[in-house]
Amino acid sequence: MRYEVVESYPVYQQTGVISDDLVILTGYYTSKDYPEPFRMVTYEDFSTSVVYRFITNSQFGPLTVSELYREQWQVELFFKWIKQHLKIKSFYGTSQNAVYCQIWIALCTYLLIAIAKNRYNIEQSLYSFSQVCGITPFEKMPLNELFSRMSTIVPIDDSPNLFNFN
What we know:
Elements: E1 3-9, E2 17-25, H1 28-33, E3 38-45, E4 50-56, H2 62-70, H3 72-85, H4 96-119, H5 126-135, H6 143-152
Antiparallel strand pairs: 1-2, 2-3, 3-4
């Protein structure tokens, strides 16, 4: 990317921020496509010695900008976790409020299941626990008894073993 520094702002380099510049693009096509100046923050992560360049139009401080972009991966992982664990198949409404409500309901349900699993000291995984709770919502047996009975049942394996030559 070809660019020209229009203005440089002072930085405190002990934080890892190398530079905070206002730049414009100087390439023929890029300067026509984006003629406005923008901000480029250069940051070095001391733990990995990797240098990052962040292009932004935000008014936050350079350290805040660099931390936000550097931690963007954690945000991506959070949304991946939501997709994997909350099991929202489809949204029943299309408005912003309807989507927020459904996500909050799914998150609250997940937290209630996690609290119940912790309170009753259930050893099964949270996924197994939630599956059983979904299958047996009208059982008159307490959850801890249901899972204690499940752990005492030993499955009988009558299937033939291909590698047992006895």
